[in-house]
Design a protein that fits this description.
Layout (H helix, E strand, L loop, with lengths): L11 H12 L2 H14 L10 H24 L3 H24 L2
Helix pairs in contact: 1-3, 2-3
Length: 102
C-alpha cells in the first residue's frame, strides 16, 4: 500500500458535486483549460526522444483523467471548455492583430 499525502473520501456523489461546483466558477474553468492544455490531453504525446514521449504520455494521462472526471460529472463540458478556449483565443488574436497595425 502506498502512502498518500492527500486524502479525498472516495464518495462518487461528492466528487460529482465538487466538479459541478468547480465548473460553475469562471476561474476554475480557466484552470481546467490550462491543465488540459499543458497536459495535451487531446493531442499526441509522441516525441523523437523516447523519454520525452514517456513524460508527455504521463502528462496526457493526467489530462485524460481530468477530462473523464469533468465529462462524468457534467457531460458536454469538455466541448464547452474547448469553445470557451477558441473564443478567448479569437479575442486575444484580434487584440494582438490590432496592436500590430498601430
Amino acid at each position: 500500500m502506498s502512502v498518500s499525502f492527500f486524502f479525498v473520501n472516495p464518495d462518487e456523489e461528492q466528487e460529482k458535486q465538487d466538479f459541478l461546483g468547480a465548473l460553475a466558477n469562471e476561474n476554475t474553468r480557466r484552470v481546467f483549460r490550462l491543465l488540459l492544455s499543458v497536459s495535451n490531453a487531446l493531442g499526441p504525446s509522441y516525441s523523437q526522444e523516447r523519454h520525452s514521449t514517456e513524460y508527455n504520455e504521463g502528462l496526457r494521462a493526467v489530462g485524460l483523467w481530468l477530462a473523464a472526471k469533468i465529462e462524468k460529472a457534467a457531460p458536454g463540458q469538455i466541448a464547452a471548455l474547448m469553445r470557451e478556449s477558441a473564443d478567448d483565443y479569437a479575442a486575444f488574436h484580434a487584440v494582438n492583430m490590432g496592436k500590430k497595425h498601430d
